[in-house]
Amino acid sequence: MSSAQLAKWRAELSRDQSEARVARLTDLLNTRIREGRLLDPSNDSAKYYLQQLRQLAPDDPAAERGTRDLVAAYLLAARNAAVAGNSAQADKWVAEARAAGMTAAELSAYQLGVAAAREKAATAAADHLAQLARDRIQNGALTAPDNDSALYYLTQLKSTYGDSSTVHSIGLELASSLLERATASARAGKVAQMSADLAVARRWGADPVLVQAVEEIVTAAAKPAAQSAGSGSGAIAHYVPKRIRYTAPEFPEAALDAHISGSVIVEFTVDLDGRPRDVRVVKSTPRGVFDYAAITAVSRWRFEAPPAAIPTRMVIRFDAPKD
What we know:
The protein is mainly α.
């Protein structure tokens, strides 16, 4: 073999050996990245094999691909730590990425990814609290137990994420349920429970007119029957107040789903401003099904101002639609 042929053979052998080593180091690098062994152990980690690959073939495309893959793995670890609130660990991984050759574009993408991940995590946490609050409202756990009630989760949601349309919406749901419970308490003479529920309902946006209507149930119950009917009020006999603003009663969903019809007889006094006062149920069929809807609607009605307070009785019918 001539010296020229020998030199050519040695060059080819060296090249083949180098390519084999590059392939081997690339495989080890990718395997350690998949395994999550980015830094440890020091002599058998992704970082170690990238260093070996760069020393052996710094201009080989495999070294550049390995660098980008390892930087991406470092930044993924940094993002996970940042979202978990571990800023020190996140900074450590960013420093490793920078030392490995992180580009400005990769850093920018990482920062945007962290912001998006944090927003997504916050949204998921808020949705979880909102769902817990709604579940407790549906189950009737409005204010108790202290750490597992609709009030508890709604307060947590507001204190952590501030006012939002979700907080406002659930607050109104809670206020509505509390008004219903306060109405039942008022009729049962449980004034303390009624007052507690109304206080919370006010905090979460309950309509003052509805709150007053519930309170007037107790007031009306405390009056003698003659006084409740308007005795001595100066009412004009046979005077019928003219209604000028009407709000239709809201058909309860449960009754609507069950195709239940009924009626409610209500009594109230139209005061000198044309507002219904002391709204109360005289009789309802079926009992208790449409009472709240009737009181709520009547409390929102307005009449022409009468010459004197006028006691009024009215029948409100609830007819379920026919299929």
